[in-house]
Description:
2 copies of one chain form a homodimer. The first copy, chain A, is of the alpha/beta class. The first copy, chain A, folds into 2 domains: 210 residues, Aldehyde Dehydrogenase, Chain A, domain 1; 143 residues, Aldehyde Dehydrogenase, Chain A, domain 2, CATH 3.40.309. In chain A, 41% of the residues lie in helices and 21% in strands. Chain A is built from 16 helices and 17 strands. In chain A, the strands form 4 sheets. Chain A has a 7-stranded parallel β-sheet with strand order 10-9-11-8-7-12-13, sandwiched between helices. In chain A, α2 packs antiparallel against α5 and α10 crosses α11.
Amino acid sequence: MTDTACSATPSTAPAVPEPSADLLLRAAAVRRAAMALGQCSDAERCAAVQAMARALEEDAAAILAANRADLEAAETEGLAPALVARLRLDAAKLGGAIEGVRQVAALPDPVGRRQLHTELDAGLVLERLSVPLGVLGVIFEARPDAVMQIASLAIRSGNGALLKGGREATRSCSAILAALQRGLAVSAVAPDCLELLTSRQESLALLRLDGLVDLIIPRGSNALVRFIQDNTRIPVLGHADGICHLFVDRAADLPQALAIALDSKTQYPAACNAIETLLVHREVAAAFLAAAIPAFQAAGVELRGDATAQALGVALPAGDEDWRTEYSDLVLSVKVVGDLEEALAHIATYGSRHTDAIATTDAATADRFLAAVDSAGVYLNCSTRFADGFRYGFGAEVGISTQTLPPRGPVGLEGLVTYRYRLRGEGHIASDYASGARRFSHRPLPL
Amino acid sequence: MTDTACSATPSTAPAVPEPSADLLLRAAAVRRAAMALGQCSDAERCAAVQAMARALEEDAAAILAANRADLEAAETEGLAPALVARLRLDAAKLGGAIEGVRQVAALPDPVGRRQLHTELDAGLVLERLSVPLGVLGVIFEARPDAVMQIASLAIRSGNGALLKGGREATRSCSAILAALQRGLAVSAVAPDCLELLTSRQESLALLRLDGLVDLIIPRGSNALVRFIQDNTRIPVLGHADGICHLFVDRAADLPQALAIALDSKTQYPAACNAIETLLVHREVAAAFLAAAIPAFQAAGVELRGDATAQALGVALPAGDEDWRTEYSDLVLSVKVVGDLEEALAHIATYGSRHTDAIATTDAATADRFLAAVDSAGVYLNCSTRFADGFRYGFGAEVGISTQTLPPRGPVGLEGLVTYRYRLRGEGHIASDYASGARRFSHRPLPL
């Protein structure tokens, strides 16, 4: 769950430096180690993640002490309370994180799956197999527990990782990484597969490691993600905005629609899959808002409406800026629309292609909405808060992506693998097919 | 798209201008039309492509006349003979291209495939469905026939396209596009789904149309592809380099290995899947090269070798620059290696992760090579020339990608679609699961 959508925006964008020779050497070492890891068996990678969990348990005291030192420094420096809360790692939180590492070990292997199997001709057989990406570059803000999660996901899926935690979590991250590497040292996986970057310069230069890093995973504020997307040619798994909508159609079951709206906004307002804008069909706007305004008020939600919504009782005004804003807070903008097409046009203009829902009992309207909204998730009569890798049944969530190309939406372990074609022949050459001496069979074989 | 670690960007590259208001409007119009196209049925899209083929036939005389005018201008301007050859469109070539359009219409629909189907809870059902990407940006050098191919692939897969042909093919491309749009006009698909860009400024500004264009497909020289990759945040389907290797192992069937080497180099040396470097195991180098040197000589191939290869009869020297070079010509570099690991290290250092092959009869060596080489295609005992969408049985080839993330390798129609999650509920809200009042079933349903 990406629950970090509400942290502060860095003031000025720093320049991205060229990687230092030292960073290039360390990244190349991670890549070499990751190539070997990519050839480890499922059992070896599972055992390695289990060993990481054991080492974390054994080092618990040291990790908690390091975290206390980070917390003391944070207090001295006057770190914002929200950041301090995310930085804090007590015995219970650490225990939960270690349990999470064990759960990652138990996930089904994403590597070595045969996705395609075709006989091109007698004795010439093509396979497409899932393989690790290679090396992940992971950039966190605070949250030392995320280091354990992402490191275990990386190793489980056969990938190395360059990890950069927040500066305020340096001691915690170092202690955690030392434990993880000690765990790997007694496994078939080289400790070099995980490397901690410590300076801000290094985390910026990471964005320039094309060819050594295959995927960047940012875990932090929208501003962090946007900065990274704008400053790297490496693919980025993440999303800058989560501007999600619920459209209450004229054929909606209004009490059900209200329950969905309340859940979508208030169940965890800081989450990227919470709604920011409610679109209400003109024909039911009066009836719906009569019930919704007091219900949202009771839930502590500030409503901001367009002129029609205000005429129907919404106290505060909403304008163009509101439609573009991810509040990540107990604020909801409300717009009354004339019909489905106006709702679709609003979502196309202001949405971030994350998750958008409709409440309706009309099948044709539902089908049109589900076909026409070009978002990673399109929902009918349920809360947008279901947009989550765990809730989708993936067993893990690497992130939620709002890019167009796959992986899109909530991404599980399969977002950390790619594929490779393997062709086995018996001396087959292409000129025999060009000349017509041989012909392709293209016969599908069982997967 | 990240072939080389941290290579310097050429500073002489032309500046990429901001899109003009006119271009933004036209691109937005294509996007709107494409959104409607994305909701057309399989039958409607097939019929539209058939209508495109018919219109091309009807306009054949006008298209050939436009091409003759382009050719006359090219002669006046002294265009290179290779470019003139690619520009030329005679009746036979046009007929072949129209036949290709009809074949695209007959391809299986890539849209609407259910890739995942899970009951999250009673009445709450998740699907993952393939959907069109949206709008393709296609940049060609010369080759007016490619416009017909890519336009039909775009429409077949439910995508709009902004097409930019080479300046020297302007008249041909305009005539072709007029025919294609006339065909669409009598179909369910809006002619606005296809738009021709005509100026160089527009083709550069296309690279800045993030949010309006979902995928860039470059069809041209390595330099063109690299420039595009370096100057856009839009994903690029393509490859800058095709530096492919064949490793002749000590356990190779030497006559078979030689046949594979000759085919891989000479069957079409300008292709990206032709080999550029032959790696030969020391123990068989003398025997292999004794047969290979005269065979390559007879085929008109210039061999360049390292010191050991030269000592064994290769006439010309090869150095570091050779290992990095895609000759795209009848030139082959030869290196003698001490063992499999040295071959793997060479490929990891100099390869472009396109397609690499081994010739061996030793199963363990084959398995190690196929697991350790991190390229889109890894081959055993067959020619690298099989790396091709048609030869793989995809029915079409959009391009070959050497990026790490999917789509990778030869890409068929599936490279022009992405997916969307669709969740249908009956008033389900997330807080019921957070509270424990309800539990997820995560029950797989039939695809």
